[in-house]
């Protein structure tokens, strides 16, 4: 049986207002818990691992699950984030990779390495369809998932809809492409405005 869990991004709790003080992490966690979310997604690059370690006790204190979005910009930058995710008992790590070969065939060893890194540390990894990342382009992504059948995705379809200037009603061709993405997706990113 499938279960739907909804996570709030911690970055989305930032006010970024020049005249207001940012709420503390504890206040953000409490607000997220009070709103009924199942967990919190933290977004970080390898250089931010130490900063995020201080939030670990807040997950248990507020009874929230953890998900991690990782932004590696070099092949060797993922492991520190994977280890943090393992320490936080994250459900998985969602990779928005900044290593972006132009030819999808050159992307195969990149995703295979990161999948192996996740397996070595003992944490599941997904790859998000996201602008300015290895899965920036719909056609590239379709070729890559065909070449790496065990690769699983986190679908943020908004990037493909905008990039491909999809119209409604969606064409049969585009619907088929989107269905291929959905068939390989275990998670979805979305925004409510």
What does this structure look like?
Helix 4 (78-87) runs parallel beside helix 5 and helix 5 (104-121) packs across helix 6 (138-147). The protein has helices at residues 25-34, 49-53, 56-61, 78-87, 104-121, 138-147, 157-163, 172-183; strands spanning 7-9, 39-44, 65-70, 93-95, 125-128, 153-155, 185-188. It has a seven-stranded parallel β-sheet with strand order 1-2-3-4-5-6-7. Helix 6 (138-147) links the parallel strand 5 (125-128) and strand 6 (153-155). The protein is built from eight helices and seven strands; from the N terminus they run E-H-E-H-H-E-H-E-H-E-H-E-H-H-E. With 193 residues, it is an alpha/beta fold. The chain has one domain (7-188): Alpha-Beta Barrel (TIM Barrel), CATH 3.20.20. It is 40% helix and 15% strand.
Question: What is shown here, in short?
Answer:
The protein is of the alpha/beta class.
Topology (elements, then pairings):
Blueprint: E1 7-9, H1 25-34, E2 39-44, H2 49-53, H3 56-61, E3 65-70, H4 78-87, E4 93-95, H5 104-121, E5 125-128, H6 138-147, E6 153-155, H7 157-163, H8 172-183, E7 185-188
Parallel strand pairs: 1-2, 2-3, 3-4, 4-5, 5-6, 6-7
